[in-house]
Specification:
This protein has 18 helices and 8 strands. It is α/β, with parallel strands linked by helices. It has 3 domains: 173 residues, no CATH class; 243 residues, P-loop containing nucleotide triphosphate hydrolases (Rossmann fold); 31 residues. Helix 4 runs antiparallel to helix 5, helix 5 packs antiparallel against helix 6 and helix 7 packs antiparallel against helix 8. The radius of gyration is 25 Å and the shape is elongated.
Length: 499
């Protein structure tokens, strides 16, 4: 095997590892990265001082069973640690082991710390009981010597049943879940108990407020780098290729490969070390949780410029990471963009995501209209890059737009937001259509075209906070549940719950 082939193989393995790592980072409450159990957390009694917030637990390095870094993260305990396998292992047993490993890999030092902090910041209530059970059972799943928390688990289960009754949470699906949970706990089937608890938590708390504030802090930190800067703002639905486009524009060497049987274009090497955090995936799942600003040197791109510009990768619209991430990004990203010096919006439109009659584009324009209410006044600043187009379809984009325009019905024409963006796209693709092939194309040519576009010079007056309709519905549902909880607590004189 040649050195080049070996490097490519290593890079593919690293890319897959980064994807797995990224999938486990910053997810709601229970699945963050692959780190070992913090054993001293498992010895804490959460019944002490339950009405006051506790300071974070001091995590000693000597308490960690194994040192694991973010660069080479593996779950603390693997299937072979507790389930030795042979070639005679039945398929169903191997599937069970893999499922246990997946659950276990989602339990980390950070997720345990978050669970501990959350349950100690709350008074006695059903939400606290569920979080406590999540904490204890997570500890059971990540210990070499399980059954150290069975008494606490049983105690919390009884507490949960009592709280459910007193708080009048009598929905049949919740009652049935608690009954099923009792069976799993009695049989010490911790994997199934944990899965059921996560579903139950979503039932009683559709919006995780604790996670929301944690994510807002993370997005604020990530967004600080774009304040008072000139930025190129990549926009598009999940799967449009924003992370791949960012790598391309920043000068990464792109190669075509296959990952898990799927065609994929990935970065084989990059110039900017910050790009190591920008992962790509052949799947439709978003790999970008928060805004990622990357500085690109413009010397050599435009003769008259020796400065730089920041290109921002952002989570996709209709993102797959949950309402907590969506709302955190909606708050912090827009807050940071409003403080930028100038913004050039670049809309990415993928071949698969656009739809036969541009349904995907219609959904995108509605979301953009929420982000930029007076989008018609700023339309000149928009650029469009078409991604993932087959070779034989690249020269048909403008003609396809013309065909759609000629066959629009009255309902489609009455959609003002869509028509503003569509007509601008039609006009600009007539002059030049930017169709991206990250492997063959030159980033300088695309950067030059993007920099020629008009910039939005006063972002503060243009961008506004926006979240998806799905997230809005979840927020409304959570507010309704809080209202019911407050009324119930007043009737029980449990003012600590209201506080």
């Amino acid at each position: 095997m040649t050195n080049e082939t070996t490097q490519l193989t290593n890079r593919q393995e690293e890319e897959e590892e980064q994807q797995q790592q990224q999938q486990n980072i910053d997810r709601p409450l229970y699945s963050q990265g692959n780190h070992p159990l913090i054993s001293n957390l498992s010895r804490i009694d959460p019944y002490e001082n339950i009405h006051t917030s506790q300071s974070p637990v001091n995590i000693s390095e000597t308490d960690r069973p194994r040192e694991v870094t973010s660069e080479n993260s593996q779950p603390y305990r693997t299937a072979t640690d507790s389930h030795p396998t042979t070639t005679d292992t039945p398929v169903e047993d191997r599937d069970t082991e893999k499922n246990a490993d997946r659950i276990e890999a989602s339990i980390t030092n950070e997720s345990l710390q978050n669970l501990y902090d959350d349950m100690n910041s709350m008074p006695s209530c059903s939400e606290r009981s569920v979080i406590s059970l999540l904490y204890y059972i997570s500890c059971e799943l990540t210990q070499n010597n399980p059954s150290g928390h069975v008494n606490s688990i049983n105690k919390e289960l009884e507490s949960l049943k009592m709280r459910m009754n007193s708080e009048e949470k009598s929905l049949s699906n919740i009652r049935n879940s608690v009954k099923e949970l009792s069976v799993y706990i009695q049989n010490q089937n911790w994997e199934e108990a944990l899965k059921l608890l996560r579903k139950l938590f979503k039932e009683i708390c559709p919006l995780n407020i604790h996670d929301l504030f944690r994510f807002i802090r993370k997005v604020d930190d990530a967004a600080d780098g774009i304040k008072n800067k000139d930025i190129i703002f990549l926009l598009g639905n999940t799967g449009a290729g924003k992370s791949t486009t960012l790598h391309f524009l920043a000068g990464s060497k792109m190669i075509a490969t296959r990952i898990k049987g799927l065609n994929h274009i990935m970065a084989a090497s990059w110039k900017n070390p910050d790009l190591r955090n920008v992962t790509t995936s052949p799947s439709a799942k978003s790999e970008t949780r928060f805004i990622i600003p990357i500085t690109v040197d413009l010397s050599g791109v435009v003769a008259s410029r020796s400065d730089s510009i920041i290109i921002c990768d952002t989570p996709g619209f209709e993102d797959t990471n949950g309402p907590e991430v969506d709302i955190a990004n909606g708050i912090s990203i827009i807050r940071a963009i409003r403080e930028c010096k100038s913004v050039r919006p670049v809309v990415l439109v993928s071949y698969k995501g656009i739809g036969d009659r541009f349904e995907g584009l219609k959904n995108l324009t509605h979301l953009l209209a929420c982000l930029i209410p007076k989008i018609k006044n700023e339309i000149r600043a928009f650029s469009y890059i078409f991604t993932k187009y087959p070779e034989n379809e690249k020269d048909t984009i403008h003609k396809s737009l013309i065909n759609i325009s000629e066959t629009m019905n009255e309902q489609e024409k009455s959609d003002i937001s869509f028509m503003n963006l569509f007509e601008d796209m039609l006009l600009k693709t007539k002059r030049q259509t930017l169709v991206l092939d990250p492997v063959k194309d030159e980033p300088k040519e695309f950067l030059y075209e993007l920099l020629r576009s008009t910039a939005i010079e006063d972002p503060k007056e243009v961008f506004q906070f926006s979240i998806t309709d799905k997230s809005k519905n979840i927020v409304n549902n959570q507010v309704r549940l809080y209202q019911l909880s407050i009324l119930s607590a007043i009737q029980r004189y449990e003012y600590s719950v209201i506080k």
